[in-house]
């Protein structure tokens, strides 16, 4: 279910980017804050400003790039999800985390995830810290 919505989002984002490039022949320009915040962690205040119900919805709305899969050999499952340091599964596990319980969400690239958690993180990791 989430995969269909995610791929629909990717298609729309690709079409929007292509339309932006085609309209004036130049690459789209992003505000400095958009580029700077692309990999910034999501914090409780960011999530509270949305009407999202799950961690997946919050990420999809605020940091969709967290859900992208790496294009490297061996990366087939997407990022591994951890809640308070405990491995809970793949991206589908984000649908079981209630947005109002989240303190922070952070994305680790494959290298960072492998250093921190060991092998098996070809697509990196998504770390969810619940409110204390």
Strand order across the biggest sheet? 1-4-5-2-3
User: How many strands in all?
Assistant: 5
Helix content: 25-40%
How would you classify the helix and strand content by structural class?
alpha+beta
CATH architecture classification name of the largest domain: Beta Complex
Query: In angstroms, what separates the terminal alpha carbons?
Result: 31 Å
| Share of residues in strands | 15-25%
CATH homologous superfamily identity of the largest domain:
TonB-dependent receptor, plug domain
Would you identify the regions where 5 or more consecutive residues have pLDDT less than 50?
Answer: 20-36
Please outline the major beta sheet.
5 strands, mixed
Mean pLDDT: 78
CATH-derived topology of the largest domain: Ferric Hydroxamate Uptake Protein, Chain A, domain 1
What is the class of the largest domain in the CATH system? Mainly Beta
Please give the domain count.
2
Count of DSSP-assigned helices: 5
Topology as H/E string? HHEHHEEEHE
Cα-atom radius of gyration: 15 Å
What overall geometry do the principal axes of the alpha carbons give?
Answer: globular
